[in-house]
Amino acid sequence: MDEEYDAIVLGTGLKECILSGMLSVSGKKVLHIDRNKYYGGESASICPLEELFSKFGAPAPDESYGRGRDWNVDLIPKFLMANGQLVKLLIHTGVTRYLEFKSVEGSYVYKGGKISKVPVDQKEALASDLMGMFEKRRFRNFLIYVQDFQEQDPRTWKDFDPNTSNMQGLYEKFGLDKNTQDFTGHALALYRDDEYLEQPAIQTIRRIKLYSDSLARYGKSPYLYPMYGLGELPQGFARLSAIYGGTYMLDKPIDEIVLGEAGRVVGVKSGNEIAKCKQVYCDPSYVPDRVRKKGKVIRCICLMDHPIANTKDALSTQIIIPQKQVGRNSDIYVSMVSYTHQVAAKGWFIAMVSTTVETDNPEVEIKPGLELLGTIRQKFVSISDYYEPTDDGLQSQIFISQSYDATTHFETTCLDVLDIFKRGTGEEFDFSKIKHELGDEEQ
């Protein structure tokens, strides 16, 4: 370990593995270390099934669950937006060579105690049971506006400047009611709260366009999920980093991040060895003194032998319960995958219900999500602290990711990764450069 590295990455959570791949591809000399023997950190996939039961202190599963080896259960499942940042990253960095994806069959939103398909085009708007007849027409006009909108062509803005006017103003321009605003902001634009209403409308327009562009690629929903679960993603980025000269060490304890003059990082100590470096990238668990607790997230993994009712027997789906529908300040997320993704034995389904904790009784908070699932054969509840770094890392050159939030999609994860990359390198990640460098034979 006597070489000097541009960057040392600590932890093999998904964010750290993506960063390691991006840094390696950008020409940095990277050493990637994890104290665990496995990839994934807190976002790992658990296999076999017996290991999941034992992790949560439950008696071993009976034989009705099939072979334990047929299960790959993600502790923090998240869907990828088909046209989103992470898929672009996977394609541009060549990681798709190691992974196979399957589209998620349904995307639903909760209103008044039942779920409805998220309407994303004019036809679906008119057929949706989320709105009355006149509201459908108004929403249809709103969707046409968003679809025709082009940032470079102010004529498509229709006397509304989305850069200076807020989203609330755009909703009002089309006369959309609070209920329609609710599912548009939370199930289409995927915001976690209503602060976006006061922000420039351009941001929400981009998000809705991303949703509809992603949907257009595969048809049933805008989401994708990797075969064999998310555990394949960190390993894919690890391979990518290795191709570009990155070095990996698992099962390596980290004793200290060594600081030099002016509190700047100079290396990482493990036992008697010190690896020298200019920067460190890590998850919050490696630097407890440099993060603050922002809140808690509750997640409930549910094993079921049937699909979710009212989803046309979809073998995979996402349901968003907007906060206002259940008198909360945070949305509740439900995701479900199944044996078709090679993550469960034949005929079995894995659902996850998650939200940001707001009370002293978190399990009651996820009840609306659990009630949608029907009979649950086995559930595992975990409550984790949500951490964020206390500074931007520029002085110490230690760049820390945030904990994983309650969302069941990857958009917030990607924003965090791209933000860390920019802070660490001083520049935006150049997607185009990578594709060019990989050459035709590598794409």
From TrEMBL:
GO CC terms, sorted: Golgi apparatus
One Pfam family matching this protein: GDI
GO molecular function per UniProt: GTPase activator activity; Rab GDP-dissociation inhibitor activity
Main location: cytoplasm
Entry's Gene Ontology BP terms: protein transport; small GTPase-mediated signal transduction; vesicle-mediated transport
UniProt keyword terms in alphabetical order: Cytoplasm, Golgi apparatus, GTPase activation
Cell compartments where the protein resides: Cytoplasm; Golgi apparatus, trans-Golgi network
SUPFAM superfamilies: FAD/NAD(P)-binding domain
Role noted for this protein: Regulates the GDP/GTP exchange reaction of most RAB proteins by inhibiting the dissociation of GDP from them, and the subsequent binding of GTP.
Family named by the database record: Belongs to the Rab GDI family.
Listed name of the protein: Rab GDP dissociation inhibitor
Organism: Popillia japonica (Japanese beetle)
